Amino acid sequence: EFACGQLTKLLLETFLIEAIRAQERNGSSQHRNDTLNNEKTLLQFAKNFMQENVCRKLTLEEISNNIGYSVPHLCSVFKKNIGTSVIQYFIDLRIKKAKELIAEGNMTLKEISEYMDFDTLQYFSTQFKKTTGITPSQYATIIKTKKYIIV
Predict the structure, then answer these.
(1) Cα(16)–Cα(6) distance, integer angstroms
(2) List of residues 6+ apart from 43 with CB closer than 8 A
(3) Are 49 and 81 in contact (CB under 8 A)?
(4) Which residues are CB-contacts of 117 (< 8 A; sequence separation ≥ 6)?
(5) Which of 11, 70, 131, 151 has most Cβ atoms within 10 angstroms of its Cβ?
(6) Lowest-pLDDT range, 25-29, 100-104, 119-123?
(7) Dihedral over Cα of 18, 20, 23, 27: its sign
(8) 125 contacts: CB under 8 Å, gap ≥ 6
(9) Residues 127 and 95 sit within 8 Å (Cβ to Cβ)
(10) 31 pLDDT tier (thresholds 50, 70, 90)
(11) Mean pLDDT, residues 106-135
(12) In this structure, are residues 136 and 112 in contact, taking their beta carbons and an 8 Å threshold?
């Protein structure tokens, strides 16, 4: 009887502390899920915006303003989830589009460079080579050779 009241208070306090901790753990996992969903949405909006504007120059500010997030947050989420920077991802998209245009064979490299809004043909060639390991001219030759062999 002497310690019964004190023991009851202690057990009740321990129970409440454990209940609060369990609730916080569940809440943090929900927060983590919400964060992941928000990041997926942010990435999808950013990718869509870049895809829609692949034929023009974009800045980080333009991309982040369009999707409604700050530049540092956008860069952080992109690096964490995609493994590359926003700008490098966009350059890769532009080079992919340029490769498609080269493969079509309807435009000269200079026209493609201008159409893709690169500052100069030299800058286009440099970015193309950084991304693919070969120059646009070499790529065009390879594509023509493959077409010739297939036909």
Answers:
(1) 15
(2) 77, 78, 81, 82
(3) no
(4) 55, 56, 57
(5) 131
(6) 25-29
(7) negative
(8) 109, 135, 136, 137
(9) yes
(10) very low
(11) 94
(12) yes
**Residue pair 44/31 in contact by the 8 Å Cβ criterion:** no
| 139 sits in which H/E element | helix 136-150
- Are 56 and 114 in contact by the 8 Å Cβ rule? The answer is no
Lookup: tokens for 118: 């690169």
Phi-psi sector, 133: left (phi>0), alpha (psi -120 to 50), beta: left
The owner of tokens 């800058």 is 123
Residue the block writes with tokens 């023509």: 144
9's tokens? 């208070």
89 to 22, 60, 78, 83, 105: CA distances (angstroms): 41, 12, 9, 9, 25
Rg (CA), the chain: 27
- 65 backbone dihedrals φ, ψ, rounded to 5°: -65, -40
Q: How far apart are CA 128 and CA 113, in angstroms?
A: 10
Q: What is the pTM of this model?
A: 0.70
